[in-house]
Write a structure and sequence with these properties.
Layout: E1 4-15, E2 24-35, E3 39-43, H1 50-57, E4 65-70, E5 73-74, H2 79-84, E6 86-89, H3 101-111, H4 121-127, H5 143-155, E7 161-165, H6 173-190, E8 193-198, H7 201-207, E9 210-215, E10 218-224, H8 225-230, E11 234-241, E12 255-259, E13 263-269, H9 275-284, E14 289-296, H10 299-308
Parallel strand pairs: 3-8, 3-9, 6-7, 7-8
Antiparallel strand pairs: 1-2, 1-4, 4-5, 9-10, 11-13, 11-14, 12-13
The structure holds adenosine-5'-diphosphate and magnesium ion.
C-alpha cells in the first residue's frame, strides 16, 4: 500500500469559455504526492487553481485529463471508494437554508450510506461547538457557525482525508483558533490526513508539515515547511556610502546591488555570516559608511520570489 494519501499525475483542467469568454486553463499538468498522516498546505494567490484542484479531488469538478488516486483508489476506476476516503469543507458557505445542523449532518450521512446506528451527529455537533444550535435553521446561523457546520458535514463518513478550502478566509481570530485546534486534534488523535488551501502564509507556516505552492495552474515549489523557511535565511543590509563609489565592491559570498540614490543592497546568508562580518568586509574593500538599514526576508518574500518569475 502506498504511503501517499493522494497521488496526482499530470492533472489538467481547462474550463470551457462561454458567451465569448475564452477557455481558462486552470491546471496545467500538476504532479503531486501528499503523504498519509500529514497536514499539508496548498498555498497560492487568488486564481492560482487551488479550489479547482480541491474540487477535482472532491469529485465536484471533472478534470480534463490526468490521473488522481485517493487512498490508493483511482478516481476513474473506483469512484465510490475514492469518494468515501475524502471529506471536503468547501470554500463557499453552501448550505441548505431549510435544514437544521442536525438535519444537515443526517442528510449528508445518508448520502454517504452511513447506517443510522453508526451516525455520530451529536458528537460532531459537540466537536464543532454547535450542540446548542442543533435544531436551528441554517439560515439563522452566523457565518462562523455555518463554517463550523461545513466542517462537521465533511466528517460524517469518517474520511481518511480531510480537505479544507480556505478554512479561515475572513473568519475572526476566535473561530480561526477553534478550527486550527480541531484540525490538529483530528490529525493527532485520529491520524487523519489534512489538506488545506490558504493564501495566508502565516497559516501554512503554523499548521503545515509540508507545503506546495501553486501559481497560474502550475506547482512552483513543494517542500517541508522547515526547508521552505530555511530559504528565509537570506538577509539584506542597506548601506549609504559616505562618498560615491567608483565601482561596486566585490565581496565573497555577498550579492551586491545598487538601489536608486546610491544605496548599496548587500544580500547574504545568515548561516554563513553576520552583519558584523559584512561591515568588516566593506571596510576592507575601502567603503566608508554613512548609514545602515536592514531588510529581512519572510515567507512572503519567498512566496513572491517563487511566483514572480511565472
Ligand atoms: P483559487 O482557488 O486558487 O483562487 P480557482 O481554482 O478558483 O483558484 O481558479 C483558477 C482559475 O480558474 C481562475 O482564473 C478562475 O477564474 C478560473 N475558474 C474557476 N472556476 C471556473 C469556472 N467554473 N469556469 C471558468 N473559470 C473558472
Ligand atoms: Mg479558491
Amino acid at each position: 500500500m502506498s504511503q501517499n494519501a493522494i497521488e496526482i499525475r499530470n492533472l489538467r483542467k481547462t474550463y470551457r469559455g462561454n458567451k465569448g469568454t475564452p477557455p481558462k486553463e486552470a491546471l496545467k499538468g500538476v504532479d503531486l504526492d501528499i503523504p498519509k498522516g500529514s497536514i499539508f498546505g496548498l498555498l497560492g494567490p487568488n486564481g492560482a487553481g487551488k479550489s479547482t484542484m480541491i474540487n477535482i479531488l472532491a469529485g465536484l469538478v471533472v478534470k480534463s485529463s490526468g490521473a488522481v488516486r485517493i487512498w490508493g483508489f483511482d478516481q476513474d476506476q473506483n469512484p465510490r471508494q475514492s469518494r468515501a476516503a475524502i471529506g471536503v469543507m468547501p470554500q463557499e458557505l453552501n448550505l441548505d437554508p431549510f435544514f437544521t445542523p442536525r438535519g444537515t449532518l443526517e442528510v449528508q450521512a445518508g448520502l454517504y450510506g452511513v447506517p443510522k446506528a453508526q451516525r455520530q451527529s451529536d458528537a460532531i455537533l459537540e466537536m464543532v461547538g454547535l450542540s446548542d444550535k442543533a435544531e436551528a435553521y441554517a439560515r439563522t446561523l452566523s457565518g462562523g457557525m455555518r463554517r463550523r457546520l461545513l466542517l462537521g458535514k465533511a466528517l460524517v463518513h469518517e474520511p481518511h482525508i480531510l480537505v479544507l478550502d480556505e478554512p479561515t478566509a475572513g473568519v475572526d481570530i476566535e473561530l480561526r483558533q477553534m478550527l486550527w485546534s480541531n484540525i490538529r486534534r483530528l490529525n493527532e488523535e485520529r491520524g487523519m490526513t489534512i489538506i488545506l488551501t490558504t493564501h495566508y502564509l502565516e497559516e501554512a507556516e503554523e499548521m503545515c508539515d509540508e507545503i506546495a505552492i501553486i501559481n497560474h495552474g502550475e506547482l512552483v515549489a513543494r517542500d517541508s515547511t522547515s526547508n521552505l523557511l530555511g530559504r528565509l535565511d537570506q538577509r539584506t543590509l542597506l548601506i549609504d556610502p559616505a562618498a560615491p563609489l567608483p565601482a561596486l565592491p566585490e565581496l565573497a559570498g555577498i550579492t551586491v546591488e545598487t538601489r536608486g540614490d546610491g544605496t548599496l543592497a548587500l544580500t547574504y546568508h545568515a548561516k554563513e555570516k553576520n552583519a558584523g562580518d559584512v561591515l568588516e568586509m566593506l571596510r576592507e574593500a575601502g567603503v566608508r559608511i554613512r548609514d545602515i538599514r536592514t531588510e529581512q526576508a519572510d515567507l512572503e518574500d519567498v512566496f513572491l520570489s517563487l511566483t514572480a518569475s511565472h
